[in-house]
Amino acid sequence: RAPIFFVTSVDILSVFIYLYIVWFFHADLLITKIINAQSVNAQTISPSIIYAPSFGGLCLDISNPGLKGPRSGAPVLGYTCSGANNQLFQRGADGTIRAPSFGGLCLDISNPGLKGPRSGAPVLGYKCSGANNQLFEWRADGTIPAPYFGGLCLDISNPGLKGPRSGAPVLGYKCSGGDNQRFF
User: Fold this and answer.
1) Which residue, of 65, 119, 135, 160, has the fewest CB within 10 Å?
2) How far apart are CA 155 and CA 172, in angstroms?
3) What are the distances in angstroms from CA 140 to CA 30, 38, 52, 80?
4) What are the backbone angles phi and psi of residue 110, rounded to the nearest 5°?
5) Residue 33: which H helix or E strand, with range?
């Protein structure tokens, strides 16, 4: 009886030669893909705006009155998008949200006196420390809570539910999932 499947050493050698040729000529492509994957995993992607598309398209903006440049402790606002350096942010691998082209300031839910989370606390551009009030999580629904700081969400202030207003302060606020808390 003849076997149903018959493999010779020539067949095995051909497979190894084929795999070697593919590896040899495509190794640089494979290495590039690995490096790119590591870059994305490390969150070293280019800085970009963070905006609320369903809330007037306002962007997060570290206040820069008089165009004097970065100042630790400056308030973060919901502002008309311009793409200026004070509106460009990058997700840090450590959970921070940084403005690398604007003094490297981090978004920071204000914590005066180190008293802990308080809904309605202002969000500031502050020197990065990696403290819990600077660590954020990006959720699929667009909300950005601080999971280690009372779960407060970034929130463009909307007093009286009057809708979007350029220049409105950004707060750390109890998560509601409202349009003023959904960012992309």
Assistant:
1) 160
2) 6
3) 30, 21, 14, 24
4) -50, 135
5) helix 9-41
Q: How far is CA 1 from CA 4, 5, 6, 7, 8, in A?
A: 9, 12, 12, 16, 17
Q: Distance between CA atoms of 82 and 37, rounded to whole angstroms?
A: 30
d(CA 125, CA 111): 13
Q: What average pLDDT is seen over the chain?
A: 82
Beta strands in 58-120 (DSSP E): 58-62, 74-79, 90-91, 97-99, 105-109
Q: Find tokens 């440049």 and name the residue.
A: 69
Cα–Cα dist 157/161, whole Å: 9
Rounded to two decimals, the pTM is 0.73
Query: Rounded to 10 degrees, what is the CA torsion of 122, 104, 46, 66?
Result: 70
Q: Is residue 38 exposed (0-12), middle (13-18) or buried (19+ Cβ within 10 Å)?
A: exposed
Distance from chain centroid for Cα 36: 17
Quote the DSSP letter at residue 46.
Answer: P
pLDDT tens, position by position, 71-124: 999 999 999 999 999 999 999 999 999 999 999 999 999 998 788 899 999 999
SS3 state of residue 73? coil
d(CA 179, CA 54): 6
CA–CA distance, 149 with 162 (Å, rounded to integer): 28
